[in-house]
Structure formats: C-alpha cells, structure tokens
Amino acid sequence: MKEKALEFLNKDYLLNVDMIECIRRDICRILYASDKAALIVADSGWVYMLSCEDRELGLELIKTHQPPWVVLHQMDMREALAVLGYRIGDECWQSAYTKSTPMEEAFADIRQLDRSYAKLIDENYDLADEEEITAQLDAGVIFGAFVKGELAGFIGRHDEGSVGMLFVFPQFRRMGIAEALERNYVNRELAEGNVAYGQIFVGNTPSRQLQEKLGMDFSDKFICWCGKSE
C-alpha cells in the first residue's frame, strides 16, 4: 500500500509533500491508497490527510473514517465537508526546500528549548495548544534564537512533521531573526534526511516573501485544514 500511495501522491509532489513526508518518515498509518486517492492518519491520531482526484470517493472516505481533523488537498470538496459538519480553514500554500545543499547561516545563538518555555510559547503562538507545545518541547524539536541571553524568537516542528511555530517577539523584529531561525531549522531537517516543508496562509505576504528569499518551492494549488464542529 505504501508504494501505491506514494505513486499517486508524487503526481503532484509539492501539493502532497506533507503526506509524502509523513509516509517516508514512517510517522503515519496509510488507511487507503489507489491510483485516485490516498488517506493517511498521523501517529498522533487526530490529524488525517486526504488527497483525492475522485470527489465522491473522497467524501466516502471521510464518512467512513470520521476524522476529527483532515488536511484537504482538493478544494472542490470543501462545500461537501461543510455540509458534513466540518469547519473549513483558510487556504494555504505548501512550501518545501527541495535542494540537498544546506543553507548558509550567520546567526550563532540558536538553542534547543525545554518545557520551561511552554507557557511563554503558548501565550504567543495561536496555532498549537500548550499540550502539543509541551510534547514538542519534550521531543526536542523547538528551538529559540537568543540575543544577549534573551529569547528573541522560536521555531518548531508540528507532530505531523511540518515546520512551523515561527514567532519573533516585537522588540526583536526587523533583525533577521525569523530568517535565521528558518535557515537553521531547514539545515537540521536536512541533517536528519528530511525535506523541510510547511504551510503558508494565502495572503500572508511577509511569510511568502521570506520563503521565496530562502529558495523554497511552492505548490500551485492550495490545501486547507478542516475540523469537525463540536
């Protein structure tokens, strides 16, 4: 099933890079794979990812598995998911660093953070709760940039593998901190044999410009995160 899933997903590599990396890193279960669709669930158990060329097949997979959250890779399914009780998130580009050469780095003081920083990160980053943040801190995948011993910003990896949690405190902005953090993290992913990828909300021009400056590649089509209404 793994080979069948990857064969389908690689037809649009950048759109499906999140699913491909989950499979390649062995951090998910493949629930369905054919020449028209692939459905996986991350090891966390709450994030499902669906890419499907057949709308009716995709909806049947959603109805069968009832995912609490699903990363949708075809936008023509959104209205049907809304009818099924899902909140439809904003469109995102997938971005990925597909080169094999490390990025140049100049900023020196970037350190792994521990759970003593959980509350501070939770207070300043909205797209993960304190439980996930603490788990990722314990996993050793959140790093901070320090200026004269003070935490200036942070970046991390979500449990499904995407690079995110990028935040720079206001007093340290316009100093190249975000760029330094991302360069460092891309190189860490490369060292682990991973493709560094993430998602950018459509309309987030500063983030898109940063990724372009770093030489990231982008999907032509969009994905969105959809959560089951309570």
Q: Output the radius of gyration.
A: 18 Å
- What structural class do you assign from the helix and strand content? alpha+beta
Mean pLDDT: 94
Shape: globular
Distance between the termini: 33 Å
Which regions have little confidence, pLDDT < 50, spanning 5+ residues? none
Strand order of the largest sheet: 1-2-3-4-13-5
Quaternary state of the chains: single chain
Strand content: 25-35%
Largest sheet, if any? 6 strands, mixed
SSE succession: HHEEEHEHEEEHHEEEHEHEE
The helix content is 25-40%
Number of H- or I-type helical stretches: 8
Number of strands: 13
In short:
This protein has 230 residues and is of the alpha+beta class.
Describe the fold and architecture:
- By secondary structure, the protein is of the alpha+beta class.
- It is 32% helix and 28% strand.
- The protein contains 8 helices and 13 strands.
- The protein has helices spanning 2-9, 17-24, 55-65, 78-83, 118-124, 130-138, 177-191, 205-213, and strands at 28-33, 37-42, 47-52, 69-72, 86-88, 92-96, 110-112, 142-147, 150-157, 163-168, 197-201, 217-218, 224-228.
- A 6-stranded mixed sheet has the order 1-2-3-4-13-5, sandwiched between helices. A 4-stranded antiparallel sheet has the order 7-8-9-10.
- Strand 8 (142-147) and strand 9 form a beta hairpin.
- Helix 1 runs antiparallel to helix 2 (17-24).
- The mean pLDDT is 94.
